[in-house]
Design goal:
Length: 335
């Protein structure tokens, strides 16, 4: 399958009182048509900043350094088939034209992503007019209601007239899904879309996203801290730590045979239905302005040795499709 998105060496720097830090550091991956890539990591690992960088929505003062962020515009009639747009070098106007139409995002918290003083329908209509200025008011309203139906919102005509505070958390998340899909993107980024939802609603949202992906042929990046969710939705997973991808490969392989001690620690710390003692990872994620030399996970790693502090390990092959940033993998040492 052709790649709709190719990320090569993406680095994002943010200014702080102690100098520049890199919440996204030399990240590379590809996303094929119809594929779901799960991105997993603790809070502060760089997941959300990565998603914002992909959308061209990094905060003021941030800078994207080097690398390439290539988005296939084959569906764009004004572009040659297979032509890629580099979102690193694209102008603000070019990025605005692609955002929503080619690549869209479901944000983590609906109450902050939605405008509290605008009706739900009006907010979806606004997303339509950004890409179709000639769309009539009646047509925009009709398309907004259809988008809500697509997102399985009950009584869509009524919900379109309501304000965000009048909707439940699950319905607000569905409204965000409708808004993200209304312009027909081929790449969808879902940033922890089930956070703060109860188990029943979480299951409904995951099933909705899976159905929409099948029906619309979407490629999806699913960001979460929950390995159980990744197992349900993603065929491939990238694990992030301190801004870097430290392991990447097929989901079933990483969950059953992790190649990096951090991934193994996440699995041991994950809650299970079977009663037992959870084993937390000792220590905390290091501050980005005080990263240790070499491997960022070394101070917390039970396999830490002197070689870990010499330099940042390269991604090494644990199997043909499975790579981990650990010297044990590069040396072929079984743990």
């Amino acid at each position: 399958m052709p790649n709709l998105l190719e990320v090569r060496g993406l680095t994002v720097e943010l200014p702080t009182e102690k100098g520049w830090v890199r919440p996204v550091n030399d990240v590379s991956f590809t996303l094929a048509a119809g594929e779901t890539l799960g991105i997993v990591g603790e809070s502060g690992s760089g997941k959300t900043m990565l998603s914002l960088a992909l959308m061209g929505l990094t905060p003021p003062g941030a800078r994207r350094m080097g690398g390439a962020l290539l988005l296939d515009r084959a569906s764009d009639k004004s572009a040659a088939a297979g032509r890629y747009a580099n979102l690193i070098t694209a102008s603000p106007n070019e990025i605005r034209a692609l955002r929503g139409r080619e690549i869209a995002m479901i944000f983590q918290e609906p109450m902050t992503a939605l405008n509290p003083v605008m009706r739900i329908g009006a907010q979806i209509e606004e997303a339509i007019r950004v890409h179709d200025a000639r769309c009539s008011s009646a047509d925009a309203r009709s398309r907004a209601v259809e988008a809500l139906k697509l997102a399985a919102v009950p009584e869509p005509e009524l919900r379109a007239r309501q304000y965000p505070h009048q909707l439940s958390g699950g319905l607000r998340q569905r409204a965000l899904i409708a808004m993200a899909l209304v312009a027909g993107p081929r790449v969808l980024i879902a940033d922890e879309p089930t956070t703060a939802l109860d188990a029943t609603v979480q299951k409904q949202i995951l099933e909705l996203l899976a159905r929409l992906q099948r029906e619309l042929g979407l490629a999806m990046i699913f960001i979460t801290h929950d390995l159980g969710v990744v197992a349900q939705v993603a065929g491939r997973v990238a694990v992030m730590y301190a801004g870097r991808v430290i392991e990447e490969g097929p989901t079933h392989e990483i969950l059953h045979e992790p190649g990096h001690p951090y991934t193994a620690g996440l699995l041991r710390a994950a809650p299970r239905l079977k009663r037992g003692t959870l084993t937390p990872i000792p220590g905390t994620v290091p501050s980005l302005d005080a990263l240790p030399p070499g491997c960022a996970f070394a101070p917390r790693c039970e396999f830490h040795r002197a070689e870990c502090d010499i330099g940042v390990p390269e991604l090494a092959a644990a199997s043909p499709d499975h790579h981990a940033r650990c010297i044990l993998v590069s040396e072929g040492v079984a743990r």
